[in-house]
Fold these 3 entries.
Entry 1:
Amino acid sequence: MDKPELEATLRGFVGRETGPPVEGPDPVNEVMIRHWCEAMGDANPVYTDRDAAAASVHGGLVAPPTMLQAWSMRGLAMADLRQQQDETHSDQQLALHELLTQAGFPSVVATNSEQGYTRYLRPGDRVISHTVVEAISGEKATALGIGYFLDTRTIFRDPAGDELGWMTFRVLKFKPHAQPAAAAPDPAAAPAKPRRLRPPLGHDNQWWWDGIAAGELRIQRCRDCGTLRHPPRPMCGRCQSIAWDWVVSRGAGAIHSYVVLHHPPVPGYEVPLPVVLVDLDEGTRLVANLAGRKPAEIRIGMRVQARIEAMDEEMKLPVFHPAESGS
Amino acid sequence: MTTALRDRAAIVGIGQTEFSKHSGRSELQLACEAVKAALDDAGLSPADVDGLTTFTMDSNDEIEVARAVGIGDLTFFSRVPYGGGAAIGVLQQAVMAVATGVAETVVVYRAFNERSGRRYSAGISEGIVTADLIHWSWYLPFGLLTPASWVAMFAQRYMHETGCTSRDLAQVAVSTRKHAINNPAAFFHGVPLTIDEHQASRWIAEPLRLFDCCQESDGGCAQVVTTLERARDLERRGAVIRGIGQAAAADQENMTSFYRPDITFLPEMDLVAKQVYEMSGLGPDDVDAAILYDAFTPIVLWQLESFGFCGRGEGKDFIRDGALELGGRLPCNTHGGQLSEAYIHGMNGVNEGVRLIRGTSVNQPAKHDHVLVTAGVGVPTSGMILGKLD
Ligand SMILES: [Zn+2]
């Protein structure tokens, strides 16, 4: 399925109910309320103390509003939903996720959720949820990878159809930047070291980072006028051509400016950390770290040579080193 | 060059909250308090306001502020991007609205819990998802994450080419601190700073030390802009906006314009200077005092050069002998600046600019006919010249 076809199919989901209304397996009850309050450390007596609740503005026990979703959850049966749906009904939300997984966006992360409460629930109330696919974004470049945001809206009602509250839920279904290492993690291994921040990737820079992964320091080149440009952009500012390719830089250059980072400390980075702005011999500039010189030994104009080095098991970066004499 | 906005509007009210490290209340409340204070200062009521404008980075929606403060119908609202670069840009929006009759009285505001909430010094992180995300991919993996680190890259080259030293930068910090000492609203009220203390302070991002960097702050500021006709009817004197402009220059990046042939000056601030001088008909010799955006010390030097108070690379010479202090050639950041009063994205400096014109600063220069006020440095930015209402 190509991208226009995928996006047209995705648009078809917007406005659809994800499936039939779901009625909570248990009515609102004091036992689940008590468990919740203990787990949350909420000592408000209107939830658990009948006498105090009777004397309060509520006139009796009520459930914590934030339990709203809990009343309509399907419990452990949710784990079997994938099997159930073939036999019982089609769940549109699962179908949507499956579609995106097939299209190359296998990962999912919840990004935000909001709830609103129309009235307090009391023991004996029954909760029925209706969920609708509210919106699906276009393809987005995010810090995690390229993907689609899926928004659902759930309305909670009583059996008479009166609204009890609502919830919006947004997930990102995405293609992660780097595939996890093939080897299974060793449970005895020490906790992973903090890693350097990953570059956000999108249409306009993925190819450059693919080059780094392949051991090449690339510089974008206009195919019409030959101008080199960095950082990359989709159009040539000189001749407005959108045709481009790249040259592979030799990685040699001279320090144009630099900083030495001390504060704040950032996990995954060791300070003092020199960062250099280098005039590459090809004519563009590049920011990267410098190794092999103490901060006090760094000089503007110093000749440097980039090497592409592994920062961890997944990420490579260009690193400048003092050039060999004579180069 | 248009002069269409010259002398068309005045800032008639200024307001602010206290500045702190932990406001203890919502950003919306800070915004409301600042807006109300500005209206009180102007002698106007919320019902007089028909326009609102703020920063794109501000979390307080215009309609939330309007509803909370009791401002009724709005016929104008807009936002300006690029962080502190917006500080005068929002006023330019207000002036354009007032000059064209789109609105009569516009309030500009900015309020945040920048210290107790999301801190800019925490830098760019993997979590952000914005349109300029790809831009950060060129810096983030290398640890170049904070505003101080971006400014330091320009500063290193500038110092290399001009001979400016860390002690010269200290002079900027010390001059500014002398003003904060007298300002009860300032973080560093009553706290002096010496060159040696600056030199002993720890590195943040070489060549910048702790005292080269501003104070992260919670707080809110607001100004009321209206027509000169209306301004003349008000009891308190307003400040006329004589010239105002916004600018982004060729090859501009947001804080990281590292790819221009020469990175030792600010083409965008040069372009602001050209506009405000041409619009106002004034020049550097007419400017009696200045509020120069000072999130970091070196950017003050670059602005002195952009606005023609000295030649390129001569900032360090200009500031010797107390030129930026009361009694000097150009009293600058008389409130203590963002270095020593508080960092409210330049909006606290706008309030001080109005005080200077009114003659009510705690560090009031004798001559105060024209005051230059600038916005963020290293970003697409803005600036203006204020004058007295005749
Ligand atoms: Zn071209």
Note: The pocket of zinc ion is lined by residues A 222, 224-225, 227, 236, 238-239, 241 (CB under 6 Å).
Entry 2:
Amino acid sequence: MTQIYAYIPFKNGSAEDVALEYPAAAKKIDAAAMLTAVVTGSGAELDSVATEMSKIYEQVIKVDNQALAYPNAEVVRKALVNIIPKDAILLVAHTTFGMDIAPGLSVKMDAAYAADIVDFEGIEGTRLKMVRQELGGAVSTHVTADISAGAVITIRPGAFAPVDGGAANGTITDKSADAGDLASTRKFLEVVEAEVGDVDITKSDVLVSIGRGIEEQENIELAQELATAMNAVVSCSRPIVDAKWLEKSRQVGTSGQTVKPKVYMAMGISGSFQHLGGLKGNPFIVAVNKNPKAPIFQVADVGIVTDILEFMPELTEAISSL
Amino acid sequence: MEILVCVKRVPDTAENEFELNGAGNDLDRDDLVYSVNEWDNYAVEEAIQMVDKMGGSVTVVTVGDDESEEILRREMAMGANNGVLLSDDAFEGSDGKGIATILKAEIEKGSYDLILTGAQADEGAGQVGGMVAAMLDYPYASLVNKIDVMDDKKIKVGREIEGGNQEMNEISLPCVLSIQTGINEPRYVGIRGIRKVSSVEIPVKSASDLGLDAASVGSAGAKTRRVDYFVPDMGEGAEMLEGSTEEIIAKLIEKLKAKGGL
Ligand SMILES: Cc1cc2nc3c(=O)[nH]c(=O)nc-3n(C[C@H](O)[C@H](O)[C@H](O)COP(=O)(O)OP(=O)(O)OC[C@H]3O[C@@H](n4cnc5c(N)ncnc54)[C@H](O)[C@@H]3O)c2cc1C
Ligand SMILES: Cc1cc2nc3c(=O)[nH]c(=O)nc-3n(C[C@H](O)[C@H](O)[C@H](O)COP(=O)(O)OP(=O)(O)OC[C@H]3O[C@@H](n4cnc5c(N)ncnc54)[C@H](O)[C@@H]3O)c2cc1C
């Protein structure tokens, strides 16, 4: 029987949303698989997450060790190598923690590796068929992996429909004694919180958001003028912040702000999942992009194929004269 | 400090509209424009800045074919001192682990204090750096957006985590780091810079030069395999507004009014 383990990330004593998404993913791999949640950490916080998980999963493994109090990927990896059976499939969320731990773990487990999976299409013989994206979401691919010696797979948060938790009455097994030597040459020091900027984009109902399509720093003015006309605020995608054209606090996405506007104007933004990950609350999305194949058009409500540098001033003028 | 930076030649997402080929199972690669993976430019810039401060040298390496030489030259025009191309028909069909195995063999031939990769490349996996580290038993940190050298045995690195927060770690050398965009501002490379390095010899190493068993790399060693490319059916997608600019703007304003945008 296929054995699937799901690594549960948590913060401040409660599991992240992906904990409810793993069961749906596991079912698509093999509906008959045995699914086990794995929680590592320390003390009361760990216990409360393990208890929470026993209401979703029939089997829960907890690993309690002071060295696991903060999820330092190098330390957690050492513990998991000793705890996950060699021929099992381990699911990890494709987050900054998942990206940190999973590739090396697959090497140490001598298992197949697949990253950022958005769908599973079942097992045929020894091969598992999966769907992932490349080139910033511009194309999808089917990949297969030989899982006969196990697999480590990261799944994209939000890609699998969450199950209803609460019904299970799972068993919690304490495997702390099996964790082994957790000494590491990478030491966690502290988390430095992101700086707060002069504008709070999370407070605005309407965002005029610019991406690499703005092309030059001077052109940001065009977006600012449109935003002023719409009584909106300018936000942006990551490359604009990397180029130091706007403050980090204006960045929408998984490594930036999570926003819940009513209307989101995506101007010259391709629509990568890290960008869209910061967009919540089902806003009305208007996408303007000169590439008709840009992935943003798959999630937008309204799309316009044109050059934003020409379009924005015309829209500003039309709105101003209303 | 001796620094090795791994770089990959990738289709440029800003310059291409991706289409499937006639058979519908691969990209139409005929007219694709290629460049250096965006993340790798930040890794090379960081390495150059470190060596400018502390001395040492920067070597750039790629696993690829003849055409990959151009990206090594580009990074050498930025200021990397040496380039190495790892190329062999036996590498064809390599998965991420295959690529990591090839890079590991080259790393073991040198003596590097620090190995840098990009946080991810065109395939969006972000796998090679962590794999190389595990194979070498070096410590690893991904998504690094700050490096402070403490002494010749230890560095302090910041990892960019969710919400743009920064996770600080102390890590021993030698180690492998994957570099996140925004850590620096990569310098511009002009045609003249590239011309300057156009005649520099770039060694090409094969599987046997690296002492690699052909069964451990290429399709023979690959547990994962890409079957095909496809365009997913995402349902309806956006309602596309068409017509003259005035017509489009009129329709858009109606919608924005209805949805609370105006
Ligand atoms: C761990 C991690 C975290 C990340 N976090 C974030 C995050 O929080 N937020 C974020 O945004 N990204 C994030 N990224 C980066 C993300 O992967 C993408 O690289 C990024 O979102 C791309 O930004 P973009 O859409 O502006 O640029 P591109 O992908 O380059 O897209 C530019 C678009 O503009 C269009 N265009 C160009 N010129 C014009 C024009 N004149 N008129 C109209 N259209 C034009 C192009 O067709 C293209 O679709 C993260 C990446 C990683 C690895
Ligand atoms: C010669 C060759 C043949 C291939 N054949 C196939 C095939 O038949 N089928 C198939 O599906 N795939 C094939 N690939 C793709 C291969 O599987 C990917 O290169 C591998 O998975 C890593 O790419 P990635 O985008 O996942 O890298 P990521 O892990 O996302 O990249 C992160 C970082 O790793 C480093 N890196 C990645 N790739 C390289 C590289 N090639 N050289 C140096 N550094 C690198 C870079 O620093 C990069 O920023 C081939 C690749 C090569 C080079």
Note: Residues 201-320 of chain A form a domain with the Rossmann fold fold (CATH 3.40.50.1220).
Entry 3:
Amino acid sequence: MKYEVVMGLETHVELETKSKIFCSCGGHSEADQPNDCVCPACCGMPGMLPVTNKHAVELAVKAGIMLNCHINQYATFDKKSYYYPDLPCAYQITQWFHPICTDGYVEVPTKYGTSRIGIKQIHMEEDAGKLVHDDWADVSYVDFNRTSVPLIEIVSRPDFRSAEEVLNYLEKLKAMFRFGGISECEEGAMRCDVNISICPEGSEELGVRSEIKNMSSLTAIERAIKYEVARHIDALERHTETLVQETRRWDDIKNRTFAMRNKETAADYRYFPDPNLMPIVVDDEWLASIREHMPATIEEKTAEYTDMGLSAQDIASLVSERKLCDIFDAVVADGRKPGDTAAWILTDCAGILRRSGKVIGELNIAPDDLSYIIGAVDEGKINRNVGKKVLSAVIEKGVSPEQYIKEQALDAKVDESLLLETVQKVLATETKAVGDYLGGKTKALQSLFGSCMKALRGKGDPAVIRELLEKEIEKLR
Amino acid sequence: MEYFVTEIDRDGTVAVDDTILIKDYETKAGSHILDGFVPLFSGDAVERLLGAGYAVRGKTHTGEFGLDIAGETSYHGVCRKADGTLSTAAAEAVAAGVVRQALCVDVNGAPRRGAALSGVDFLKPTYGTVSRYGIIPTACSGEQVGVCAGDAESVKELLAVIAGHDGKDGTSLPAASYDYTADKTIAGLKIAVVQEYYDAAADEIKARLDAYIASLKEADAEVTMISLPDAKAYATAWQIMLSAETCNNISRYDGVKFGYRTPTYKDIDELYVNSRTEGLGFTAKANVLYGSDVLSKNQYLRCYDKSLRIRRLASEKMKEVFAAYDAVLCPVMRTASVEAYDTADTFERTQQELLFTAVPSLTGIPAMVTGGVQLWSAAFGESTLLSIAKAMEGRADK
Ligand SMILES: [Zn+2]
């Protein structure tokens, strides 16, 4: 018999904000040690009150716009009660009654074309802390660094029919959110629950549903789905077990799912609106300003760069990282030529980073600095090789390009007298080569030129030096 | 008579109840479960009064999380009046002249009842005018810091110090400060007396109200009897929200992070259960049970959600009342004094008293106790309440 797999996803994504959702602590990524990034509020000390981080709301709204959702202009924060040592207040603030976004969709590429996956809702919530178990000493420690980090939970409709669709959906969200500045989507910052059931193809009746909780790697998700599908089919065809609606967890080492204890799942969360947080009212003005400041999508950027005349390969490299686009856009906006700028970023910057074992995604340069260097080369203030040298100093040592050029006397124009002096000195000392040249061995000029360059230690424009050299040597005839 | 859980400065003129945090001083809200909890910061109201040059004499006893009639459920023991009847430590300290003023958190009306029992004034201001930052939370949607003092002028003076916007409290209203006066003219004010509350009071309280009404009339105020047919529903709604929110807020005291931890446990479940069993008193437990029930999946719509709707209806009703009247006059509690009683009756007894105090907590309007009676006004009508109180206090002094 052929079966149809029906899946729905709940995906948690950490929002890229400077501070936590209800207090002013920075994100947990800044923390070195457990409980480095906590305050009385996110530790649940009585007396502290939550204050909503407006930026988190904006990011959630942006995510909703990206996923074609309806933005609810009235949304609430609600309390979800349960006891767990990593939850300091014994309640989590989430959106139960009025989520911020509802009814959207996302187009996901598959082998067979494009699938449209429905989005039921996106709601905001705070993350919980983390327990660290020391089995050796038989104790558990609590780390609140992650407590109150803003999350959005994207609840899809049960529109997935294959593991491929699930993975492509997650890849798509990840690319979209990274590019749109919603989330870095780093390891562990995107977590997923998969609801799964199977039924005979064409059947109207849905099968028994199981939910696999809290997976963060794509390979684990794929393997867990395959395992569950096989388990369900075995149960239906070979009666290996009776399926019940339950919550399961994936064990990556044993390569199978396990039912979670009933106690962990059968809670009454006693939801109610949080009286400490006023409902979120996204008025027309605010919504319009968020829409106006929507970051460009990967598709829009690609079209824009194509119009500028960039090559498909350069475009692909630039849009792989939002940061590169930001640097590129700022430099071009400063008046530099798009093709040149792309080459400076993708060839020169990339090369410098590669030398120290880094990748282009790690590029950290102020657009103003890059633009200054490109400008200096264009204006002939320095030559391109010197430009590269300045660029490495800027990337590796964080120097200011303008100051560096001045300090190292790299400016071609300012030091024409120095160039002349050097050329004359070389001609005066290397009499043999001069004689050879004047005697007709034109190749000897190359060695004289090399000596000049060496004496100048890379300073000065090679074309200017060569010109000076030719002029001065003719005077000796 | 021991008023203070902790004495801070013998020259201080203001008492602060043990539900409000003062940095570096153990704060327990009258509960064993907060043993050893020393806050890292002070309440905003405390910061403001210290900033204005006041000094805090000490932290006064409160009933556990302020959930009882008048402070009798404190883990530290009961504060009694000289005759053995009950009142709050803060009101008694003011009445005895130990301090000029006191800050008290009003959750279920206990500081209002204390003021009436000790014969002093207490004003619970409009919700959102005084920051709730730094108070041990119980029922966040209605709790407010109020001022207890010997007369209306002294209440006004301290209220002006502690009221004003605080960015640390998401429910704080935007005005940076408020100008209060106690000198508005009383003549011509329209005052409503609620039939349902009047009828529910004991004879001694009816007599007190009658006398107050007579004085108001002598001062040329206009007094009218009105009806609030849903008075009981308002009280029930507030009881439901109060218990639900309290249950949720005190869940954090689980023996894991701070406060009391049981010495006997085998695993995390026993740690929770034993710490809470040993650390919470009867009234707190009763509120936890009642609160969990009204929030449960099966009861939510029938209880909590309905209470939210009743809250809206009550607000609309009060707007209607205050469109026609300047103030409402009603009892603070059923009787003029309270004898010590069996702890097992606290929940039921406080629930009965809630009839008189629920509406201001439920709808956020200000309420003032003066001369053993209670006055309400529309939101931001504190000056009307202070002026009536001051005028009547002046007449009584003559
Ligand atoms: Zn924090």
Note: The CA atoms of residues 103 and 120 of chain A lie 5 Å apart.
